[in-house]
Amino acid sequence: METQVKAIRIEKNGGPEVLKLVSVQVPAPQENEVTIRQKAVGLNFIDIYCRSGLYAHPLPHGLGFEASGVVEAVGSGVKHLKVGDRVAYGQSPLGAYAEARNVPADRVVKLPKGVSFEQAAAIMLKGLTVQYLFRQTYRLQGGETILFHAAAGGVGLIACQWAKALGVKLIGTASTPEKAALAKAQGAWEVIDYSRENVAERVKELTNGKKVPVVYDGVGQDTWTTSLDCLEPRGLMVSFGNASGPVNGINLGVLASKGSLFVTRPTLGTHVSTLAKMKAAADELFGLVSKKKIDITIGQRFPLEAAADAQEALAGRKTVGATILTLD
Ligand code: NDP
């Protein structure tokens, strides 16, 4: 049965003003889809790249990859979900900014009792990202000292807590004393306020000259060189985002001159490409949440119709922790 719902769409790339609240039809789900009546939507920096056109998709299109809600209808081929299930997803096709929508069922997991809709919308994409960064891209064992940029952000605050749970000393970076204090309170070992201190020098000091085996960098262009300067010989640069702009035009010789460094540019999609992989990563994430090793910080809530304001706040470094869109 078709239903009419409100959703955000863009017809062209640009600033926040291109976001339009429109009425759309949600058709009955196809064989391998479920219809989800959504309760909360997670906002992510990638939404801004999709809006601006840095990550181009055929227009017009919706926005958002992450949300939670209740299953309202199930396609005939779906085995692991039923009507009424509490569910969430963090890696769907574009279009999460909506009251209800159809999602491929292999992108959707059931929520454990202890995780609320708002928490799930705040943690699926961001928490699964920390899972693969810490458990797959560079498998932390405990005892390492690492550098993680934007430690007070959505992904960052989860990383601070996950690192602590693993016995890893996370050195974070942040732009203000308030953000630095928050990241430290949530488990970072040290946080460098980069508006006042030189990051590479401070990392050297904190590690007694040794520097770190891995840097996790979601800031991109502005931090590229500094990040390489913080790595020990044969260290790994994990460049996983572009908050300040993409990293372009790299001369590979720089990796040689700075000590035979490695670089990777991973995406969440590669790591949760099947339902089994997604469930395994989500189980690990939800396990830490239910053991209270990870407390979910929702720093900002906006209604669906204020999605443009929410994106402006995120792009303008005015947010801490996760930002969600709430739905009635
Ligand atoms: P955040 O909440 O971390 O927001 C971005 C933060 O980056 C800001 O708060 C700010 O923190 C910092 N920053 C530094 N320079 C800039 C700048 N010029 N403009 C804006 N922000 C800047 O966002 P998310 O948690 O949603 O995402 C963090 C990063 O992780 C993003 O780059 C995102 O694309 C990436 N990501 C990548 C994934 C992947 O699989 N590859 C998956 C998920 C996220 P401060 O003020 O402290 O500097």
TrEMBL record:
List the taxonomic lineage.
Answer: Bacteria, Pseudomonadati, Pseudomonadota, Betaproteobacteria, Burkholderiales
Protein name (database record): Quinone oxidoreductase
Which species is this UniProt entry from?
Pollutimonas harenae
Q: Which SMART domains match?
A: PKS_ER
Asked whether the keyword Oxidoreductase is assigned, the reply is: yes
GO MF, any single term? mRNA 3'-UTR AU-rich region binding
Q: Indicate the segments annotated as coiled coil, or none if absent.
A: none
Q: Where is the Enoyl reductase (ER) domain?
A: 14-325
User: Is the keyword NADP in the record?
Assistant: yes
Q: Name one GO cellular component term.
A: cytosol
Recite the UniProt keywords alphabetically: NADP, Oxidoreductase
Matching CDD domains, A to Z?
QOR2
- Top-level taxon in the UniProt lineage: Bacteria
